[in-house]
Amino acid sequence: MGYEKAVVKNMGRIEARKLGLALLVGCCLVILSYFITMSETPVDGQASLTFTVGANEEAEGKISQVQPEKEKKAVEESFSTVSHIILKDNSSESRKQDETVLPPKKEEPQVIEMPRPPLTESICDFSNFRTEFCDLKGDVRVHGKKKAASAAVVLLSPQRKAEEYMVVPYVRKHMDNIEKVAVRTAQAPHAAPACTATSTVPAIVFALGGFTGNYYHDFTDVLLPLFLTAHEFHGEVQFLITNIQLWWLGKYRPIFEKLTRYEFVDLDKSDDVHCRSHVLVDLRFHNDLIIDRARAPNGISMLDFSRFLREVYSLPRERAVSLRAHPERRPRLLLVARNGTRRFTNMPEIVQAAEAVGFEVVRADAEYGNVAGFVEVVNSCDVIMGVHGAGLTNFVFLPANAVVIQIVPCCDLEGMAEHTFGAPSKEAGLLYLQYSISVEESTLLESYPREHPVFSDPQSIHRQGWFKMGKIYLGRQNVKLDVDRFRPVLIQAMDHFRQ
């Protein structure tokens, strides 16, 4: 009996020691498992903590994705259990283990700054159906084409991906007679030509040719877009031009001299590598003879373009005549005389009708190359009137509050007429009046019978394409104006000056 009690007593002591040892081993296993678990956090979990760690709710949300709520709770409970068991032992070894195992104090949120990817937006804009426009800033190098297949513009930038475009440096990108310019980015210095001519002055690369030589296209394709592009530089810009036409540059030299203080560079004959910090390729373009103020640099408008031209040619008149202030004056009406097609065949009768209403009539047309002389005549007038054609482009030289009267030939050309001169003259702050002639006022009756589709179904002619339509309605048609039918338009123009 005593032996049995001793055995039971000893067994109790052994079981207690085993239990204590088991608890100690279990605690160690829990600690070891925790550190193994923390060291084996998957790569995806690490990536989710890339930019912020414990900085805000968003970061905490990312932590919970790596460590689900149940698992997180189990680990916290393990911390609590292990701490409780070890703290019961007051030995120094236990205290040492306690200091090792206890979780660190909560620190301030840490923000890890990671490198951001470089900007990748394109250096060129191809969104406009008519034009291509590139804006390059940085280390830009422009190589002439004297010893190369074509001119090239290179932006040296290690941060940008390599890209290359063939750009038409003219506002009508579908023109076949305009040679393209290579525009590309390069990451390594050896991929860009070495500089031979360096300047801090920005540059604009563009081409002449296309429809230049036609007075209307001179303005809508080059001069207005060039003003829109270069105006913001206040003369501190240089023009790098391909397809140079010296006679054309001479014709509009005063405009060029007002836009730049520097001599132009003929890229076709240049073998230099012109290095700049800012280069524009092609010209800004919004619409034919139109500046969209919302998109224009510094919010310029067609009014600014007209003021610019008056300043270029030293034109004295800023506003048209006011009959309220000067009732004795006779407003001057410029009757554009065309020498080719779409001319008036009864000019004396038209002059008489205009004078009867109260106008002083001026009959004139520009002499070849004498822009300055003719624009002085235009600026001296209060009304410009003519059949649809390039001569009406001179409305840009009229004083503010003047009138534009466009005579629209037969048949169904109203939309084209409105687009060409209607909308632009309104944007320039002028009164626009449009008069569409009847079939009886057209000399096409001398070539086609009245029942011909040219008159009865003009859209059937339009559907055959621009050249077919233009050959008939623009190339063969003159106007015999019905002055009685037209007189209300003249009266409306006169009343405008009385207001």
Q: Any overview of this molecule?
A:
The protein has 16 helices and 17 strands. The chain is 38% helix and 16% strand. It has three domains: 11-111, no CATH class; 124-300, no CATH class; 314-498, Rossmann fold (3-Layer(aba) Sandwich), CATH 3.40.50. β4 and β5 (152-156) form a beta hairpin. Strands 3, 4, 5, 6, 7, 8, 9, 10, 11 and 12 form a ten-stranded mixed sheet that branches. A five-stranded parallel sheet has the order 14-13-15-16-17, sandwiched between helices. Strands 1-2 form a two-stranded antiparallel sheet. The protein has helices spanning 2-39, 43-47, 57-66, 69-87, 92-101, 215-230, 246-251, 253-259, 302-312, 347-357, 371-379, 414-427, 453-456, 458-462, 466-474, 483-498; strands at 52-53, 110-111, 124-125, 133-143, 152-156, 164-167, 181-186, 197-198, 203-207, 238-242, 265-266, 273-281, 332-336, 360-364, 383-387, 403-408, 431-436. The protein is an alpha/beta fold and 499 residues long. Mean pLDDT is 82; it is low at 1-15, 34-106 and 111-120.
Outline the fold blueprint.
Layout: H1 2-39, H2 43-47, E1 52-53, H3 57-66, H4 69-87, H5 92-101, E2 110-111, E3 124-125, E4 133-143, E5 152-156, E6 164-167, E7 181-186, E8 197-198, E9 203-207, H6 215-230, E10 238-242, H7 246-251, H8 253-259, E11 265-266, E12 273-281, H9 302-312, E13 332-336, H10 347-357, E14 360-364, H11 371-379, E15 383-387, E16 403-408, H12 414-427, E17 431-436, H13 453-456, H14 458-462, H15 466-474, H16 483-498
Parallel strand pairs: 5-7, 8-12, 9-10, 9-12, 10-11, 13-14, 13-15, 15-16, 16-17
Antiparallel strand pairs: 1-2, 3-4, 4-5, 4-12, 6-7
Helix pairs in contact: 1-4, 4-5, 10-16
